[in-house]
Amino acid sequence: MDEIICCLNNASDILVTSHTAPDGDAVGSLLAMGLALAAMGKRVVLYNESPIPAVYRFLPGSERIVHEVDPSRFDTAVVLDCSDLARVGRIRDAVEKMPIVVNIDHHITNAEFGTCQLVETDACATTEIVYRLITAMKVPIDQDIATCIYTGILTDTGSFRFSNTNQAAFDISHRMIASGVNPFHVAQHVYGTYSLGRIKLLNLALDSIEISPNRKISLMSVTQNMLRETGTQLEDADGLINYAKRIQDVRVAVMIQEMPPENGVSQNHRRHYHVSLRSDGTIDVAAIATRFGGGGHANAAGFSVVSTLPELKANLLQLMSGVETPVGS
Ligand code: 5GP
Ligand code: MN
């Protein structure tokens, strides 16, 4: 922590970034860190390769996030919620060449990239770590920063329901509410402003659920056709996997999202897919995602792959064939 504070105190032009297809923690940590560094008088650029999902655009400062940047003019990069540098997207190589790269993350699979790391795998969210860092840097946590920190914790813990929900989640949320966060206002934006198309997409996604013969694995798919039919985007698939995970006896839920054709290969039915994995705690899905070049947490992980759908499903079922035997029996 002291080394990072020293790096940030000495920095003047800072690029703050987080992973592509950002979730609430990636947007929240990017904004909280960016607002805090700006309050310290630093020149900061907030960057994410992907558009900010509509449900997070209410977050203070989100209009400052840019999607194009000249990466040559920074002395420091702060990379948030990324287990490896490739997660930032196409600016990866440029970030790697920056004099100082600060890696702040909570993934078990963190590759320890960068010149200094603040990786705490017990943290429920990257915003938990950012909260401690901002406090240690003695930057006052105003309502705007507090809203970003709270939203990261709220969304990464699945509203305080997932296994990563720890005491800090409640302690910090309590403090953020004391700093002016309105939990109802945040919940309304994050969970109460879905488009009709998103609800219709939920219907199609639920209908796609398949269960393995032993009922331990559920598979859900979201295709480009479904998005077209409902007038939605991939960001609208966020969180759908939790329905597949809730099914009785299911240990691992798999969600296969077909990426737009421009991002991948479409010959011979091979497509670019993003695969999300969720576990009930008995299977380490970070290990499975790592086998496919991805990563994450023991109970929530993901990877990207180019494959045909039947081949991908067969590979996943094969890798998880151990799930056939209940752990401990
Ligand atoms: P999701 O399934 O929601 O995309 O991601 C679940 C978790 O796995 C998140 O913590 C996310 O950062 C991580 N994750 C998802 N996709 C990838 C990937 O392609 N590479 C790595 N390293 N982590 C991923
Ligand atoms: Mn996170």
From TrEMBL:
Domain DDH residues, every copy: 14-153
Gene3D superfamilies listed in its UniProt record: 3.10.310.30, inorganic pyrophosphatase (n-terminal core)
Pfam families: DHH (PF01368), DHHA1 (PF02272)
Superkingdom of this protein's organism: Bacteria
Domain DHHA1: 230-319
InterPro entries, sorted: DDH_dom, DHH_sf, DHHA1_dom, Oligoribo/pAp-PDE_c-di-AMP_PDE
GO molecular function, one term: nucleic acid binding
PANTHER family noted in UniProt: BIFUNCTIONAL OLIGORIBONUCLEASE AND PAP PHOSPHATASE NRNA (PTHR47618)
Protein name per its UniProtKB record: Bifunctional oligoribonuclease/PAP phosphatase NrnA
UniProt source species: Desulfatirhabdium butyrativorans
